[in-house]
Amino acid sequence: MATAAFNLALINPSTFILPKSPNPTKLRVCTLRCSSATTNAVPGLSERPWKTSDARLVLEDGSIWRAKSFGASGTQVGEVVFNTSLTGYQEILTDPSYAGQFVLMTNPHIGNTGVNFDDEESKQCFLGGLVIRSISISTSNWRCAETLGDYLAERKLLGIYDVDTRAITRRLRQDGSLVGVLSTEESKTDEELLEMSRSWDIVGVDLISGVSCKEPYEWVDKTNSEWEFNYSGRDGEAFHVVAYDFGIKHNILRRLASHGCKITVVPSTWPASEILKRKPDGVLFSNGPGDPSAVPYAVETVKEILGKVPVFGICMGHQLLGQALGGKTFKMKFGHHGGNHPVRNLRSGHVEISAQNHNYAVDPASLPEGVEVTHVNLNDGSCAGLAYPAQNIMSLQYHPEASPGPRDSDYAFGEFIKLMKKVKLNA
Ligand SMILES: NC(=O)CC[C@H](N)C(=O)O
Predict the structure, then answer these.
(1) What pLDDT shows up at residue 230?
(2) Do both 361 and 388 map to the same domain?
(3) Which ranges carry the Carbamoyl-phosphate synthase small subunit N-terminal domain (predicted)?
(4) Which of 255, 266, 270, 273 is deepest in the core (most CB within 10 A)?
Protein backbone atom coordinates (compact mmCIF):
# COMPACT_ATOMS: atom_id res chain seq x y z
CA MET A 1 0.00 0.00 0.00
CA ALA A 2 2.80 2.35 0.98
CA THR A 3 4.61 1.62 -2.28
CA ALA A 4 1.51 2.31 -4.37
CA ALA A 5 1.03 5.65 -2.67
CA PHE A 6 4.64 6.54 -3.30
CA ASN A 7 4.30 5.63 -6.97
CA LEU A 8 1.17 7.70 -7.26
CA ALA A 9 3.03 10.70 -5.87
CA LEU A 10 5.75 10.19 -8.42
CA ILE A 11 3.68 9.82 -11.53
CA ASN A 12 0.86 12.26 -10.89
CA PRO A 13 1.87 15.62 -12.36
CA SER A 14 0.93 18.39 -9.98
CA THR A 15 1.20 22.06 -10.79
CA PHE A 16 2.38 24.46 -8.14
CA ILE A 17 3.93 27.88 -7.75
CA LEU A 18 7.18 28.06 -5.91
CA PRO A 19 6.84 30.53 -3.05
CA LYS A 20 10.35 31.92 -2.68
CA SER A 21 11.21 33.74 -5.87
CA PRO A 22 13.77 36.51 -5.30
CA ASN A 23 12.10 38.43 -8.13
CA PRO A 24 8.31 38.20 -8.35
CA THR A 25 8.31 39.28 -12.03
CA LYS A 26 10.32 36.17 -12.80
CA LEU A 27 7.94 33.86 -10.99
CA ARG A 28 6.92 31.07 -13.30
CA VAL A 29 4.52 28.24 -12.98
CA CYS A 30 6.44 25.04 -12.79
CA THR A 31 5.12 21.56 -13.29
CA LEU A 32 6.48 19.09 -10.83
CA ARG A 33 6.50 15.65 -12.31
CA CYS A 34 8.81 12.76 -12.76
CA SER A 35 11.26 12.94 -15.62
CA SER A 36 10.23 11.40 -18.91
CA ALA A 37 12.62 8.59 -18.00
CA THR A 38 10.28 7.57 -15.23
CA THR A 39 6.95 8.47 -16.77
CA ASN A 40 7.73 6.58 -19.97
CA ALA A 41 8.37 3.53 -17.90
CA VAL A 42 5.09 3.60 -16.00
CA PRO A 43 2.19 2.33 -18.03
CA GLY A 44 0.15 1.54 -14.91
CA LEU A 45 0.20 2.26 -11.21
CA SER A 46 0.75 -1.34 -10.26
CA GLU A 47 4.05 -1.53 -12.13
CA ARG A 48 7.42 -0.40 -10.86
CA PRO A 49 8.33 3.16 -11.90
CA TRP A 50 11.87 2.12 -12.79
CA LYS A 51 12.71 1.53 -16.37
CA THR A 52 15.01 -1.30 -17.42
CA SER A 53 18.08 -0.79 -19.57
CA ASP A 54 17.13 0.42 -23.08
CA ALA A 55 20.33 2.11 -24.26
CA ARG A 56 23.98 1.30 -24.80
CA LEU A 57 27.16 3.33 -24.85
CA VAL A 58 29.76 1.38 -26.82
CA LEU A 59 33.29 2.77 -26.53
CA GLU A 60 36.01 2.27 -29.11
CA ASP A 61 38.01 0.27 -26.54
CA GLY A 62 35.31 -2.43 -26.78
CA SER A 63 33.58 -1.72 -23.49
CA ILE A 64 29.77 -1.69 -23.49
CA TRP A 65 27.85 0.32 -20.90
CA ARG A 66 24.17 -0.57 -20.51
CA ALA A 67 22.03 2.41 -19.61
CA LYS A 68 18.57 3.91 -19.57
CA SER A 69 17.56 6.67 -21.94
CA PHE A 70 15.80 9.89 -20.95
CA GLY A 71 16.07 12.03 -24.09
CA ALA A 72 15.54 11.23 -27.74
CA SER A 73 15.88 7.81 -29.35
CA GLY A 74 18.36 6.85 -32.04
CA THR A 75 22.06 6.25 -32.58
CA GLN A 76 24.81 8.85 -32.40
CA VAL A 77 28.61 8.76 -32.56
CA GLY A 78 30.85 11.20 -30.66
CA GLU A 79 33.89 11.70 -28.47
CA VAL A 80 33.24 11.20 -24.77
CA VAL A 81 34.52 13.95 -22.46
CA PHE A 82 33.91 14.28 -18.74
CA ASN A 83 32.87 17.57 -17.18
CA THR A 84 33.50 18.21 -13.48
CA SER A 85 31.10 21.16 -13.02
CA LEU A 86 28.66 20.72 -10.16
CA THR A 87 26.05 23.01 -11.69
CA GLY A 88 25.30 24.58 -15.06
CA TYR A 89 24.28 21.61 -17.19
CA GLN A 90 22.10 23.85 -19.37
CA GLU A 91 24.99 26.19 -20.24
CA ILE A 92 27.13 23.12 -20.94
CA LEU A 93 24.48 21.61 -23.22
CA THR A 94 24.28 24.85 -25.22
CA ASP A 95 28.04 25.55 -25.44
CA PRO A 96 28.80 25.11 -29.20
CA SER A 97 32.36 24.02 -28.35
CA TYR A 98 30.92 20.59 -27.44
CA ALA A 99 29.92 19.85 -31.07
CA GLY A 100 30.83 16.26 -31.89
CA GLN A 101 31.13 15.27 -28.23
CA PHE A 102 29.13 13.45 -25.57
CA VAL A 103 29.36 15.22 -22.24
CA LEU A 104 29.58 12.94 -19.23
CA MET A 105 28.87 14.80 -16.00
CA THR A 106 30.92 13.60 -13.02
CA ASN A 107 28.41 15.16 -10.63
CA PRO A 108 26.12 12.18 -10.09
CA HIS A 109 22.80 13.98 -9.71
CA ILE A 110 21.62 16.01 -12.71
CA GLY A 111 18.33 17.59 -13.72
CA ASN A 112 16.95 18.77 -10.38
CA THR A 113 16.55 22.41 -11.47
CA GLY A 114 15.16 21.57 -14.90
CA VAL A 115 15.78 23.93 -17.80
CA ASN A 116 14.92 27.64 -17.99
CA PHE A 117 14.62 30.42 -20.61
CA ASP A 118 17.67 32.42 -19.48
CA ASP A 119 20.66 30.08 -19.37
CA GLU A 120 21.07 29.24 -23.06
CA GLU A 121 24.60 29.87 -24.31
CA SER A 122 23.69 29.62 -27.99
CA LYS A 123 20.60 29.24 -30.16
CA GLN A 124 20.79 25.44 -30.17
CA CYS A 125 22.56 22.41 -28.71
CA PHE A 126 25.40 21.17 -30.91
CA LEU A 127 26.71 18.38 -28.68
CA GLY A 128 26.10 14.68 -29.41
CA GLY A 129 24.41 13.76 -26.14
CA LEU A 130 24.50 13.66 -22.36
CA VAL A 131 25.72 10.84 -20.10
CA ILE A 132 24.84 10.98 -16.40
CA ARG A 133 24.72 8.78 -13.33
CA SER A 134 21.29 9.70 -12.10
CA ILE A 135 18.44 11.85 -13.42
CA SER A 136 16.46 13.74 -10.83
CA ILE A 137 12.95 12.31 -10.49
CA SER A 138 11.53 15.74 -9.75
CA THR A 139 12.26 19.21 -11.04
CA SER A 140 12.02 22.27 -8.86
CA ASN A 141 13.35 25.76 -9.45
CA TRP A 142 11.76 29.23 -9.60
CA ARG A 143 13.00 29.69 -13.19
CA CYS A 144 12.22 26.16 -14.39
CA ALA A 145 10.32 25.93 -17.69
CA GLU A 146 10.58 22.21 -18.41
CA THR A 147 12.36 19.02 -17.40
CA LEU A 148 15.78 18.13 -18.73
CA GLY A 149 14.39 14.94 -20.33
CA ASP A 150 11.72 16.86 -22.26
CA TYR A 151 14.28 19.48 -23.33
CA LEU A 152 16.62 16.82 -24.76
CA ALA A 153 13.82 14.90 -26.45
CA GLU A 154 12.46 18.06 -28.16
CA ARG A 155 15.94 18.77 -29.54
CA LYS A 156 16.38 15.15 -30.65
CA LEU A 157 19.33 14.72 -28.31
CA LEU A 158 20.24 11.47 -26.66
CA GLY A 159 20.55 11.38 -22.89
CA ILE A 160 21.40 8.30 -20.84
CA TYR A 161 21.47 7.67 -17.11
CA ASP A 162 22.20 4.81 -14.73
CA VAL A 163 25.72 4.61 -16.08
CA ASP A 164 28.80 4.18 -13.88
CA THR A 165 30.13 7.63 -14.80
CA ARG A 166 32.95 7.31 -12.27
CA ALA A 167 34.29 4.16 -13.93
CA ILE A 168 34.13 5.77 -17.40
CA THR A 169 35.87 8.91 -16.11
CA ARG A 170 38.67 6.81 -14.60
CA ARG A 171 39.04 5.00 -17.92
CA LEU A 172 39.21 8.30 -19.86
CA ARG A 173 41.79 9.67 -17.41
CA GLN A 174 43.87 6.52 -17.71
CA ASP A 175 43.61 5.79 -21.43
CA GLY A 176 42.77 9.21 -22.86
CA SER A 177 39.78 10.42 -24.90
CA LEU A 178 37.60 7.73 -26.42
CA VAL A 179 35.09 7.77 -29.23
CA GLY A 180 31.77 6.11 -28.43
CA VAL A 181 28.39 5.34 -29.90
CA LEU A 182 25.20 5.96 -27.97
CA SER A 183 22.20 3.98 -29.13
CA THR A 184 18.67 3.17 -28.08
CA GLU A 185 18.14 0.96 -31.14
CA GLU A 186 17.79 -2.70 -30.20
CA SER A 187 18.17 -3.72 -33.84
CA LYS A 188 21.82 -2.66 -33.91
CA THR A 189 24.29 -5.26 -32.66
CA ASP A 190 27.12 -4.47 -30.25
CA GLU A 191 29.58 -5.28 -33.05
CA GLU A 192 27.92 -2.79 -35.42
CA LEU A 193 28.11 -0.03 -32.81
CA LEU A 194 31.73 -0.87 -32.02
CA GLU A 195 32.60 -0.75 -35.72
CA MET A 196 30.86 2.64 -35.96
CA SER A 197 32.88 4.05 -33.07
CA ARG A 198 36.15 2.74 -34.52
CA SER A 199 35.58 4.16 -37.98
CA TRP A 200 34.83 7.72 -36.79
CA ASP A 201 37.31 10.41 -35.83
CA ILE A 202 37.01 13.97 -34.55
CA VAL A 203 40.66 14.94 -35.17
CA GLY A 204 41.28 16.97 -38.33
CA VAL A 205 37.60 17.82 -38.82
CA ASP A 206 36.38 21.43 -39.31
CA LEU A 207 33.54 21.67 -36.79
CA ILE A 208 33.48 25.47 -36.73
CA SER A 209 31.70 25.84 -40.05
CA GLY A 210 28.71 23.91 -38.67
CA VAL A 211 28.21 26.14 -35.63
CA SER A 212 29.17 29.67 -36.79
CA CYS A 213 26.49 32.23 -37.71
CA LYS A 214 25.80 32.68 -41.43
CA GLU A 215 25.45 36.48 -41.47
CA PRO A 216 26.93 39.30 -39.37
CA TYR A 217 24.74 40.78 -36.63
CA GLU A 218 24.90 43.36 -33.86
CA TRP A 219 24.77 42.23 -30.22
CA VAL A 220 23.44 44.60 -27.52
CA ASP A 221 22.38 42.51 -24.49
CA LYS A 222 24.34 43.06 -21.31
CA THR A 223 24.38 40.84 -18.29
CA ASN A 224 20.96 41.26 -16.68
CA SER A 225 21.23 43.89 -13.91
CA GLU A 226 19.85 41.32 -11.48
CA TRP A 227 22.95 39.17 -12.03
CA GLU A 228 25.57 41.87 -12.68
CA PHE A 229 28.60 41.49 -10.41
CA ASN A 230 31.34 43.62 -11.99
CA TYR A 231 29.68 46.67 -13.48
CA SER A 232 32.30 48.80 -15.21
CA GLY A 233 30.23 51.99 -15.05
CA ARG A 234 30.38 52.34 -18.83
CA ASP A 235 26.91 52.77 -20.20
CA GLY A 236 27.93 54.15 -23.56
CA GLU A 237 29.28 52.09 -26.38
CA ALA A 238 32.86 53.09 -25.74
CA PHE A 239 34.60 50.52 -27.91
CA HIS A 240 33.59 48.78 -31.11
CA VAL A 241 34.56 45.12 -31.01
CA VAL A 242 34.16 42.72 -33.92
CA ALA A 243 33.73 39.18 -32.63
CA TYR A 244 34.54 36.25 -34.89
CA ASP A 245 31.95 33.55 -34.25
CA PHE A 246 33.73 30.21 -34.21
CA GLY A 247 30.93 28.93 -31.94
CA ILE A 248 30.66 31.91 -29.61
CA LYS A 249 28.98 31.61 -26.22
CA HIS A 250 26.42 34.32 -25.49
CA ASN A 251 27.97 35.20 -22.17
CA ILE A 252 31.18 36.37 -23.89
CA LEU A 253 29.01 38.86 -25.78
CA ARG A 254 27.06 39.85 -22.66
CA ARG A 255 30.25 40.45 -20.69
CA LEU A 256 31.76 42.55 -23.51
CA ALA A 257 28.53 44.59 -23.66
CA SER A 258 28.52 45.02 -19.87
CA HIS A 259 32.10 46.28 -20.07
CA GLY A 260 30.96 49.01 -22.47
CA CYS A 261 31.45 47.54 -25.95
CA LYS A 262 29.40 47.88 -29.10
CA ILE A 263 29.62 44.47 -30.71
CA THR A 264 29.39 43.19 -34.28
CA VAL A 265 29.47 39.40 -34.61
CA VAL A 266 30.74 37.98 -37.90
CA PRO A 267 30.84 34.46 -39.37
CA SER A 268 34.06 32.44 -39.15
CA THR A 269 34.77 32.92 -42.86
CA TRP A 270 34.30 36.70 -42.89
CA PRO A 271 37.29 38.29 -44.70
CA ALA A 272 39.83 40.09 -42.53
CA SER A 273 39.96 42.95 -45.06
CA GLU A 274 36.24 43.67 -44.42
CA ILE A 275 36.88 43.82 -40.69
CA LEU A 276 39.86 46.14 -41.01
CA LYS A 277 37.84 48.46 -43.29
CA ARG A 278 35.38 49.01 -40.42
CA LYS A 279 38.26 50.17 -38.19
CA PRO A 280 37.08 48.43 -35.00
CA ASP A 281 38.77 49.19 -31.67
CA GLY A 282 39.35 45.48 -31.13
CA VAL A 283 38.73 42.00 -32.51
CA LEU A 284 37.68 39.00 -30.44
CA PHE A 285 38.37 35.46 -31.64
CA SER A 286 35.83 33.25 -29.92
CA ASN A 287 35.69 29.76 -28.49
CA GLY A 288 34.70 26.98 -30.88
CA PRO A 289 34.60 23.21 -31.30
CA GLY A 290 37.17 20.76 -32.58
CA ASP A 291 40.71 20.69 -33.81
CA PRO A 292 42.36 24.09 -34.40
CA SER A 293 44.64 22.48 -37.02
CA ALA A 294 41.59 21.61 -39.11
CA VAL A 295 40.72 25.26 -39.83
CA PRO A 296 43.75 26.79 -41.63
CA TYR A 297 41.45 29.43 -43.20
CA ALA A 298 40.72 30.79 -39.72
CA VAL A 299 44.44 30.88 -38.84
CA GLU A 300 45.04 32.89 -42.05
CA THR A 301 42.31 35.36 -41.05
CA VAL A 302 43.86 35.78 -37.61
CA LYS A 303 47.30 36.35 -39.19
CA GLU A 304 45.92 39.13 -41.39
CA ILE A 305 44.46 40.94 -38.37
CA LEU A 306 47.37 40.58 -35.94
CA GLY A 307 49.35 43.73 -35.28
CA LYS A 308 46.71 45.99 -36.90
CA VAL A 309 44.18 46.14 -34.07
CA PRO A 310 44.13 44.88 -30.41
CA VAL A 311 42.90 41.28 -30.23
CA PHE A 312 41.58 38.93 -27.55
CA GLY A 313 41.39 35.17 -28.14
CA ILE A 314 39.30 32.85 -26.00
CA CYS A 315 39.82 29.07 -26.07
CA MET A 316 39.66 28.14 -29.80
CA GLY A 317 40.52 31.81 -30.44
CA HIS A 318 43.59 31.43 -28.21
CA GLN A 319 44.65 28.27 -30.08
CA LEU A 320 44.24 29.96 -33.48
CA LEU A 321 46.28 32.93 -32.21
CA GLY A 322 48.99 30.52 -31.03
CA GLN A 323 49.16 29.01 -34.51
CA ALA A 324 49.02 32.40 -36.24
CA LEU A 325 52.01 33.50 -34.15
CA GLY A 326 53.96 30.49 -35.43
CA GLY A 327 53.28 28.07 -32.55
CA LYS A 328 51.86 24.55 -32.55
CA THR A 329 48.77 23.05 -30.92
CA PHE A 330 48.41 19.45 -29.79
CA LYS A 331 45.65 17.17 -28.57
CA MET A 332 45.67 16.64 -24.80
CA LYS A 333 45.14 13.24 -23.22
CA PHE A 334 41.63 13.95 -21.93
CA GLY A 335 41.41 17.75 -21.92
CA HIS A 336 39.91 20.12 -19.37
CA HIS A 337 36.16 20.38 -18.91
CA GLY A 338 34.69 21.86 -15.75
CA GLY A 339 34.30 24.86 -13.50
CA ASN A 340 37.02 24.05 -10.98
CA HIS A 341 40.36 24.44 -12.76
CA PRO A 342 43.01 26.39 -10.84
CA VAL A 343 45.01 28.77 -13.03
CA ARG A 344 47.92 30.97 -11.97
CA ASN A 345 48.13 34.43 -13.49
CA LEU A 346 51.91 34.72 -13.79
CA ARG A 347 51.81 38.52 -13.99
CA SER A 348 49.87 39.09 -10.76
CA GLY A 349 50.72 35.83 -8.98
CA HIS A 350 47.01 35.35 -8.22
CA VAL A 351 45.30 32.00 -8.56
CA GLU A 352 41.91 31.94 -10.30
CA ILE A 353 39.41 29.12 -10.24
CA SER A 354 38.31 28.94 -13.83
CA ALA A 355 35.77 27.43 -16.20
CA GLN A 356 37.41 25.33 -18.89
CA ASN A 357 36.39 23.30 -21.92
CA HIS A 358 39.11 22.22 -24.31
CA ASN A 359 40.87 19.12 -25.65
CA TYR A 360 43.68 20.93 -27.45
CA ALA A 361 46.40 23.23 -26.12
CA VAL A 362 49.17 25.50 -27.37
CA ASP A 363 52.72 24.19 -26.92
CA PRO A 364 54.50 27.20 -25.38
CA ALA A 365 57.93 25.88 -26.46
CA SER A 366 56.85 26.29 -30.09
CA LEU A 367 56.11 30.02 -29.74
CA PRO A 368 58.50 32.69 -31.02
CA GLU A 369 60.46 35.02 -28.78
CA GLY A 370 58.45 37.94 -27.40
CA VAL A 371 55.31 35.88 -26.83
CA GLU A 372 54.67 35.68 -23.09
CA VAL A 373 52.90 32.85 -21.29
CA THR A 374 50.67 34.83 -18.90
CA HIS A 375 48.63 32.01 -17.30
CA VAL A 376 49.33 28.38 -16.38
CA ASN A 377 46.87 25.60 -15.50
CA LEU A 378 47.96 24.42 -12.05
CA ASN A 379 46.60 20.88 -12.52
CA ASP A 380 49.00 19.97 -15.30
CA GLY A 381 51.18 23.01 -16.02
CA SER A 382 49.69 23.53 -19.50
CA CYS A 383 49.59 26.96 -21.13
CA ALA A 384 46.42 28.81 -20.12
CA GLY A 385 47.08 32.30 -21.47
CA LEU A 386 49.31 34.28 -23.80
CA ALA A 387 50.23 37.88 -24.52
CA TYR A 388 52.30 39.54 -27.20
CA PRO A 389 52.44 43.14 -26.02
CA ALA A 390 54.31 44.34 -29.12
CA GLN A 391 51.19 43.56 -31.18
CA ASN A 392 48.48 44.20 -28.52
CA ILE A 393 47.52 40.53 -28.35
CA MET A 394 46.05 38.73 -25.34
CA SER A 395 44.42 35.32 -25.06
CA LEU A 396 43.10 32.77 -22.59
CA GLN A 397 42.73 29.03 -23.04
CA TYR A 398 39.82 29.02 -20.61
CA HIS A 399 36.53 30.91 -20.20
CA PRO A 400 36.61 34.32 -18.45
CA GLU A 401 32.86 34.56 -19.13
CA ALA A 402 32.27 31.41 -17.01
CA SER A 403 28.66 30.30 -17.65
CA PRO A 404 28.87 27.97 -15.96
CA GLY A 405 31.63 28.53 -13.45
CA PRO A 406 33.27 30.98 -11.10
CA ARG A 407 33.66 34.63 -12.10
CA ASP A 408 37.28 35.04 -10.96
CA SER A 409 38.53 35.71 -14.49
CA ASP A 410 36.08 38.43 -15.53
CA TYR A 411 38.89 40.97 -15.11
CA ALA A 412 40.24 39.74 -18.49
CA PHE A 413 37.45 41.68 -20.26
CA GLY A 414 38.58 44.78 -18.35
CA GLU A 415 42.16 44.16 -19.55
CA PHE A 416 40.96 43.93 -23.14
CA ILE A 417 39.21 47.29 -22.66
CA LYS A 418 42.46 48.77 -21.27
CA LEU A 419 44.37 47.44 -24.29
CA MET A 420 41.88 49.03 -26.71
CA LYS A 421 41.92 52.29 -24.72
CA LYS A 422 45.72 52.47 -24.79
CA VAL A 423 45.82 51.99 -28.56
CA LYS A 424 42.96 54.46 -29.14
CA LEU A 425 44.60 57.16 -27.01
CA ASN A 426 47.94 56.72 -28.79
CA ALA A 427 46.42 56.71 -32.28
N1 LIG B 1 35.96 25.86 -25.82
C2 LIG B 1 36.68 25.86 -26.91
O3 LIG B 1 36.84 26.85 -27.61
C4 LIG B 1 37.25 24.53 -27.33
C5 LIG B 1 38.53 24.70 -28.10
C6 LIG B 1 38.91 23.48 -28.90
N7 LIG B 1 37.84 23.13 -29.72
C8 LIG B 1 39.32 22.35 -27.99
O9 LIG B 1 38.56 21.42 -27.76
O10 LIG B 1 40.42 22.43 -27.50
Answers:
(1) 77
(2) yes
(3) 53-183
(4) 255
